[in-house]
Every structure is written in structure tokens, then in C-alpha cells.
Amino acid sequence: MSLENMKDLQLEEKHPQPETKEVNGILMTKMISDNWEKIWNFQAKPDDLLIATYAKAGTTWTQEIVDMIQNDGDLQKCQRANTFDRHPFIEWALPPPLNSGLDLANNMPSPRTLKTHLPVQMLPPSFWKENSKIIYVARNAKDCLVSYYHFSRMNKMLPDPGTWEEYVETFKAGKVLWGSWYDHVKGWWEAKDQHRILYLFYEDMKEDLKREIEKILKFLEKDIPEEVLNKIIYHTSFDVMKQNPMANYTTLPTSIMDHSISPFMRKGMPGDWKNYFTVAQNEEFDKDYQKKMAGSTMTFRTEI
Ligand code: A3P
User: Fold this and answer.
1) Looking at 87, 117, 150, 184, which residue is catalytic?
2) Domain of life, per the record (predicted)?
3) What is the reported pTM?
4) What confidence score (pLDDT) does residue 98 get?
5) Catalytic residue status for 150
6) Is the CB of 247 under 6 A from ligand 1?
């Protein structure tokens, strides 16, 4: 059964505050933790494409772009199903009769496009063995934090974020699902030269989507006419995607995602963190950031 058919079920009762449990020191939902052996042993295929991100880095946006490329800009084909059914979220485990990411992936014909938020060291090893292509998208920490905070408020499957002040500390400490943002972006950055990984940045996509889509096209060894490229740019713009029920998560029952608390397609703008961080919080954050990112060659833009 797919999630959108679950409206009748008393999901509030079935999914109270989700329990969490660490796997290898990384916070996960208990369902993921309990299923970890199966997830770790997931069998990737050489023609799989994996979209890997830290939560809230622009996963859904990238999924839509990739799907449109793969379907040569055919909108109807891209509207065949919800994002989460088009691209299985491999570690996302749900109680039966809901489909977990593994079930969806295992039942999907190849070539498959898959999604993960796993930190690099926890990626099922078959992806490396099969040399599957991976697109990683990173987004600056402050905007990720703001986006994750609001998402945790509206998504009943994630732990309650508490107050803004509390959440800033929780995020800095990496005590959120999928662990530390700092370790995640650095870990995947270090892996990118040893594997088939295209490493993209949300801010670059926002700055010049055409340029970034062209990088994806090259990586996928795909050629499309200019008019199809322009169509993809239009249909994956924030305003158009916000209206697309197959991409904006509004088909889920409000007992799972309550868009009246905060819409999934919220702002889509680099620099929104300035509306939330106090001057003191920002200074503290920057100090801590320097320590956690020391020695890394990565640079992020917190505005464009
Ligand atoms: P905000 O909460 O800052 O608005 P993910 O898909 O990884 O969960 O990321 C969600 C974030 O990406 C949200 O950020 C969402 O608005 C933003 N997003 C989704 N589609 C987008 C698009 N087409 N253009 C820009 N941002 C987009």
C-alpha cells in the first residue's frame, strides 16, 4: 500500500512521536535502526542512479530535474506518481502495510533512480562495488538548519524539534536524524574523487540552474534539445514545483505532513537563515562552524 492511500488510517495513533535509535553513532528512526541489516545489505545495480543528500539540501528539486531529464521533458510521465514512489528512499522503513524504501526499490524495474540521506560511511557497500552513479547535493548549513527545523515541525515522522533555540543546539551537536551536517558534507566531499560522484551545491543551482543541469546531463551522458532543457528549467522552478502535487508532498495525509504548520515547498531561497538567527546565535554558530570544518577544502555560500 502506498502512503497516499493511507488517509483513512488513524496514523496519529499508529505513529506517535517516532522513536529514535542510533546506528553506528548516527541518530536514525527506530524503524531504520531495526531494519539496519537489511538496509546495509541492499543490492545496488550498476545502472542505478543514487541521489544522495543531507536532509533539506534540495533532494526533491534534484529528483524532479533528474526525472525530467530521464523522461526527455515529458510532463505526463513525470506526473506518473509522487516523488517518493518514483524514487525509492532506500533507508526509509515504515510499518506494514506501508511500503518501505527497500520494498519499493526491490520491486522497481531497472534502471532505477534512488534516494538516500545516509552519511557516506553508512552507504550500503554494494553501491561502491557496482560503481553506481551518485549525485550528491549539498546546501549551506544555516539554510539547511532553518529548513530542517520547519520540516521537523510539520512532518510527524520526524522527532519534534523543540524551540528554535533548542534546535540550533541540537543541529550543531548532530543530534538530528542522519547525524551531523558537518560530517555528512565533508564525508561525501572526500569520497567524490574516488567514485562516480557528481557533487553539486544548492546555491549554485539557485544561481544558474541551466549550468547545473548541464553538469547533470554530462554526468548522465545524456543529450537533450535546448527546448527540452528550457522546459525542465521552467517546470523545476520553485513556483511551478510548489504547485505540482506529484512533487510537493501535499498528497500525504495531514497526520503525516501538515503543510498548514509549514509547507514542504517553504521558501526555496538561500539566505533565509537571516530571518531566524539572532546576531549572537550567528556569531556562536560561525565560531563552532570554523572548528567543525577546520581542515576542509570546502566552501559554502550562505547567500547568493
Ligand atoms: P526551504 O525549506 O528552505 O524552502 P529536500 O527536498 O531535500 O527535503 O529539501 C527541501 C528544501 O528544498 C526546501 O527548502 C524546499 O523549499 C526547497 N526546494 C524544493 N524544490 C525547490 C526548487 N524547485 N527550487 C528551490 N528550492 C526548492
Assistant:
1) 117
2) Eukaryota
3) 0.95
4) 79
5) no
6) no
Domain 15-140+175-255, CATH class in plain words: alpha beta
C-beta separation of 45 from 132 below 8 A: yes
Closest residue to atom 12 of ligand 1, CA basis = 58
Whole-number CA gyration radius for the chain = 18
The DSSP H or E segment spanning 201 is strand 197-201
Amino acid making up residue 221: E
Cis peptide before 95 (omega within 30 of 0): no
**Ligand 1 centroid to 144 CA: how many Å?**
10
For residue 228, give Cα distances in angstroms to 58, 59, 71, 92, 205.
Answer: 22, 21, 10, 33, 18
The closest of 301, 298, 257 to 7, measured between CA atoms, is: 257
- Answer yes or no: is the C-beta of 56 below 6 A from any ligand 1 atom: yes
What residue spans define the domains of the chain? 15-140+175-255
Task: Spell out, as residue ranges, where the chain has pLDDT lower than 50.
Answer: 1-15
CA 142, CA 282: separation in Å to the nearest integer? 9
Q: Give residue 16's pLDDT.
A: 60
Q: How far is CA 260 from CA 4, 61, 106, 151, in A?
A: 18, 21, 34, 12
Scan for cell 532505477, then name that residue. 112
